[in-house]
Automatic annotation (TrEMBL):
Belongs to the glutamate 5-kinase family. It is found in: Cytoplasm. Its main location: cytoplasm. ATP binds at K30, T191, D192. It comes from Neorhodopirellula pilleata. The lineage of its organism: Bacteria, Pseudomonadati, Planctomycetota, Planctomycetia, Pirellulales. It catalyses: L-glutamate + ATP = L-glutamyl 5-phosphate + ADP. One of its GO terms (cellular component) is cytosol. The keyword Cytoplasm applies. This is Glutamate 5-kinase. One of its GO terms (molecular function) is glutamate 5-kinase activity. GO terms for biological process: L-proline biosynthetic process.
Length: 393
């Protein structure tokens, strides 16, 4: 059972926290560059040590613990004594590769003092796009846990060219995707503030929000980021990652990474950071992958009748309701479904490739065989392979 199935959000805050911790079997902790860097720009080995001790205590309870750690670029800049982060992608990639060695060594040294090995896992989003890659990453992370080690994940910066065009990728989001590989997971995003504030964190009147039940536009608008050279995602990125994790059924906590006992306190169910509670209805397994991890290969523009059929009546998608097909895709690829107004309402696995779909769009099932010479499927997307609305990028 996913944690969210049993969380009654009418309970008091303390009871909800307790219930979430009791139900958590897998913990994904993400720590940002700001938390891991000392004032003089070096990798903060003391902070790694403090976090490692707490990760080990959580792992001692039998839970599957995964650390997603930024800081490779920062560590590389410090090691090479560069005056600032380089600008060009190739140089950034090289600096990340050089700094990653220090980062993983710091985790290995610290975790080993508490009886755990660190396992370096470098991922790009494309590793999760194919269903087979998604399952392999999950199996590898399970294997690391079964060997009694703790995975330390970072984006594979030196090869993640697509994500790197303008900036480094976003580890908050990567962490939400990693949590999405498992059931009963809790995502913890550690940063340099105490959680989400209801105004700018530097304003005296701003208050920490303890719990968010519905991560809607009003909550999103609380992010007041002025992005720095050090971190790229900002609070908005953390909120998007929280919403993604929530859509998988995973509670998320944005908490203070520089508080020495932050993880111990979270696992003692204390009111630390901001807790985001998932909705009761969430996605599982393959449908979760379709909605958020898979690469979208094409777009189907639907007419109003098709929108009504799939959204309101729970039907499969038929060719007759497709007005236009964009993109080049194969049978089994994930496509995005748009309303006549251009709004994305669903994603699904197409039974037909794009060249076939362009020919049979707007046509009834009776005509398909005459056009294609065969009709392998009754529908273009079966309702079991269709995810309506609960889409997070
Ligand atoms: N409403 C808000 N509440 C708290 N922090 C906010 C808010 N809006 C923007 N921020 C900023 O978000 C920053 C944390 O995000 P980020 O810079 O990405 O950190 P990290 O390196 O830890 O990933 C904080 O330092 C803070 O200045
Ligand atoms: N992968 C990069 C960090 C990317 C990232 O998301 O950074 P941050 O916003 O500090 O969590 C690195 O290790 O430097």
């Amino acid at each position: 059972m996913a944690a969210s199935d049993a969380i009654d959000s009418s309970d008091g805050l303390a009871a909800i926290r307790k219930q979430i911790i009791e139900q958590t079997r897998c913990v994904v902790v993400k720590v940002g560059t700001r938390v891991l860097t000392t004032d003089d720009g070096k990798l903060d080995l003391n902070r790694v040590d403090i976090l490692a001790a707490q990760l080990a205590r959580i792992a001692d309870t039998g839970r599957h613990v995964i650390m997603v750690s930024s800081g490779a670029v920062g560590a590389g800049v410090a090691k090479l004594k560069l005056p600032a982060r380089p600008i060009g992608i190739a140089k950034l990639q090289a600096v990340a590769a050089i700094g990653q060695a220090d980062l993983i060594r710091a985790y290995e040294d610290s975790l080993l003092r508490h009886g755990y090995h660190a396992a370096q896992v470098l991922l790009t989003k494309s590793d999760l796009r194919r269903r087979s890659g998604y399952l392999h990453v999950r199996n590898a992370l399970m294997g690391v846990h079964e060997y009694g080690a703790i995975a330390v994940v970072n984006e594979n910066d030196s090869v993640a060219v697509a994500e790197l065009k303008t900036t480094f990728g976003d580890n908050d989001r990567l962490a939400a995707h990693v949590a999405g590989l498992f059931n009963d997971a809790l995502l913890i995003l550690l940063t340099d503030v105490h959680g989400l504030y209801d105004g700018h964190p530097d304003d005296d009147g701003s208050q920490r929000i303890e719990m968010v039940r519905d991560l809607d536009g009003t909550v999103m608008s609380m992010a007041k980021d002025t992005l720095s050279a050090v971190s790229k995602g900002g609070m908005e990125g953390k909120l998007r990652a929280s919403r993604l994790a929530n859509s998988h059924g995973h509670p998320t906590i944005i908490g203070p990474g520089r508080q020495d006992d932050v993880l111990d306190r979270i696992f003692a169910s204390e009111s630390v950071g901001t807790l985001f509670i998932p909705p009761k209805r969430t996605l599982k397994g393959r449908r979760r992958w379709i909605a958020s991890a898979a690469n979208v290969q094409g777009v189907l523009h639907l007419d109003a009748g098709a929108v009504e059929a799939i959204r309101d009546k729970g039907r499969s998608l038929l060719a007759v309701g497709i007005v236009r097909v964009d993109g080049t895709f194969s049978h089994g690829d994930v496509v995005s479904l748009l309303t006549p107004e251009g709004e994305e309402i669903a994603r699904g696995l197409s039974n037909y490739r794009s060249s076939e779909l362009s020919l049979i769009a707007r046509r009834s099932n009776l005509e398909i065989e005459a056009i294609l010479g065969h009709r392998p499927y009754e529908n273009v997307i079966h309702r079991n392979n269709l995810v309506i609305r609960m889409i997070e990028n």
